[in-house]
Amino acid sequence: MKSLWIDSEAKAFSGSDLDMRVYTSRLLGSNENLVMHGGGNTSVKSITQDFFGNEVEVLLVKGSGWDLKTIEKPGFPALRLAETQRLATLDTLTDTDMASQLRFNMLDQTSPAPSVEAILHAIIPSKFVDHTHADAVLVLSNNPKGKNIIAEVFSDCLILPYVMPGFILSKQVNEAIKDIDINQFKGIILHHHGVFTFSEDPKESYENMIELVNRAEDYILSKGVIDHGVSQSKINLEDLARIRNAVSISRGSPQLAMLDCSDDAQGYAMRDDVSKISTRGPITPDHVIRTKRIPVILEKKPKDSIPEIGIYAKEYRDYFERNKQENLIMLDCAPRAGVWLENGTIAFGSSTKECNIISDIWRHTRWTIQTGESLGGWEALPESDIFELEYWSLEQAKLAKSVGSQPSHKGKIAIITGAAGGIGEATCRSFVDEGAVVIGLDINKDVVSIMGEIGAIGKICDLTNEEEVKRVIEEIVITYGGLDILVCNAGIFYSGENIERISQDRWNKTMSINLDATRSLMANSIKYLRHGINPSIIVIGSRNYEAPGAGASAYSVSKAAVTQLARVAALELAHEGIRVNVLHPDAVFDTKLWTDEALKNSAARYNLTVEEYKCKNLLRVEVTSKKVGDLVSVIASDIFSATTGAQIPIDGGNDRVI
Ligand code: ZN
Questions:
Q1: CA–CA separation, 378 vs 359, rounded Å?
Q2: Ligand 1 centre and the CA of 472: distance in Å?
Q3: Range 190-216 average pLDDT
Q4: How far is it, in rounded angstroms, from Cα 389 to Cα 293?
């Protein structure tokens, strides 16, 4: 590990104590081996003015909700220093009282809540204080001989046994340093937790951290070699979709299952001892709120019912019963991480964000566990310590923001074709708004940027090439764990298709996109949809099916055929719980097909203004692509869970259809 301090860069942050604090906090945050996802915290002691203009000594400490990697000045709430230090002299302090007293000490009540380690930062006398959960130090500390190794490697540091973070930890440190000069130590090593460094000088405090972590890394390099299996597994994607389904049922909401099948992850999952070494506990207790205490171990070829998930839930309930105190309500029993034997590791979560955090933690966990094993073994804290942190109100508060009423497609995975514009793009927006992971397919390569802008994933795909369709669907399943919703929207329309004039070529092209591609999409999706959550196929038909128009032969025939295909699919798939419905839109003018010019000409043909023409239907409403997209999203939701084989018009009312 190298120091990232650069004098010329640091100069730009030399304006104030807080500027400098921002600079070195970001240096710490930019190294994943030190801290991850909101972990770790930093502070600086400074003088500022209160509301009345009086000078006051303050602690500026990392606020909750900020990540060291990207922290800015508002991420450091200012607390009155003396009052915050005084809290460490109390005999006891409840979590609620600590949170309210820290808030009471804040100069600006609109700042974020201060870190749970604020009192500890306050009582360390140095100006700058840095705290990380460095992997390499955890490897040494989590060793059966950890006490001896840490004492040997960090002989110039204050070394303290594990206690609960927060007030209890600040009391422990306060007792340890009250009668001594802390500057005789290079840092504080907290067993099973992490490292503190401190100095009057920001560079020294930061570089002491790097030096201490380097010592641990050097020790590992001199003694340990990671020994893991060789990856070779070919993933069975239907098994992955079944695993995702079982975890979703266990958690009570749709979950993504993001598989890491990198060589590193598969190598880990190939180890003979992987079940044993994976289920001892987290490498640092802080991780428990993201990953739960242990992952679920999944058989290479899981049985149909995935019994591992039920067993995991039962064991979680037992763990809760063994450790619970009064007034605690059990969290859900579903795993957040899985080790899938020979295949890799899996992160389970309601969003890609939640999964990415779990994946990152697990990547570091794999390294830390294997390195620990190579040094003679690794141990986690007893489950009672982990439980205490998992059910600590202050830790739960970090997650609280994410609960509440959920959007209707949160955790679901949806494929929508023809996504680069019009109804397809609008449908993608509707599903993104409702929390789904949306993958928009289109032959137009702009789909990648268009989808990127709305928070979806764009993939270029020629739907008339079945091999390509199959490959893209497999890519989606291996990335997110399954499939719940398929919207077959892509279609083409050539004007002036009189039967006498239309070429066979154009006829074939229309059929191949509007009809054949829909069959191929369905054919390649069904094996995953059957393991989806309230799975649904929605086909975008057309008013032309019920009310065809002259000059639209291929289009009208293709839409009639695709409607019949959907009806057969509804019959074939109902027993598996997959619903298939058709939407028949008409006169959707806010798409790329309709220029202002074309609209004006069409309106003129009917002797209408453009506005009148747009609403030329019984209800006199304009049918926008957003209205169509929103309806597709509702049909895919639980509201329509008892409807299949239906044809639903969205045309403002059409007398020929009615
Ligand atoms: Zn910590």
A1: 21
A2: 42
A3: 96
A4: 10
Cα of 566 from ligand 1 centre, angstroms: 56
How far apart CA 583 and CA 640 sit, in angstroms, is: 13
CA of residue 552 to ligand 1 center, whole Å: 68
Q: Give one DSSP letter per residue of 168-194, joined into a string.
A: HHHHHHHHHHTTS-GGGSS-EEETTTE
Q: Around ion ligand 1, which residues have CB less than 5 A away?
A: 194
Task: Tell how far the Cα of 132 is from the centroid of ligand 1, in angstroms.
Answer: 6
Helix then strand then coil, in percent of the chain rounded to 5, is 45, 15, 40
CB atoms within 10 A of CB 214: 16
Mapped to the 3 state alphabet, what secondary structure does 411-453 carry? CCEEEEECCCCHHHHHHHHHHHHCCCEEEEEECCCCHHHHHHH
Please write the tens of the pLDDT for every residue from 88-138: 999 999 988 999 999 999 999 999 999 999 999 999 999 999 999 999 999
Helical (H) or strand (E) element with 374: helix 352-374
CA of 379 to the centre of ligand 1 (A): 18
Is 480 in contact with 438 (CB distance < 8 Å)? Answer: no
Contacts of 67 (CB under 8 A, 6+ apart): 29, 37, 38
CA of 160 from ligand 1 middle (Å) equals: 13
Cα 109 to ligand 1 centre (Å): 24
Judge whether 333 and 294 are in contact, CB under 8 Å: no
Q: Cα 296–300–301 angle (5° rounding)?
A: 110
131 CA distance to ligand 1 middle (Å): 7
**Residue 289 · residue 390 · CB < 8 Å:** yes
How far apart, in whole angstroms, are the C-alpha atoms of residue 278 and residue 362? 10
Separation of CA 75 and ligand 1 centre (Å) = 17
Report the separation in Å between the CA atom of 652 and the middle of ligand 1, taken as the mean of its atom positions: 59
The torsion region of residue 246 among left (phi > 0), alpha (psi -120 to 50) and beta comes to alpha
Q: Which of 472, 476, 404 is nearest to 436 (CA)?
A: 476
CA 436 – ligand 1 centroid, Å: 34
Cα 165 to averaged position of ligand 1 atoms, centre (Å): 7
How much distance in Å is there from the Cα of 574 to the middle of ligand 1?
52
DSSP designation for 487: E
Ligand 1 centroid to Cα of residue 40, in Å, is 5
Distance 315 CA to ligand 1 centre (A): 28
Provide the residue type at 148 as one letter.
N
**Cα distance between residue 413 and residue 321, in whole Å:** 35
Ligand 1 centre to CA of 202 (Å) is 19
- 322-357: pLDDT as tens digits: 999 877 888 999 999 999 999 999 999 999 999 999
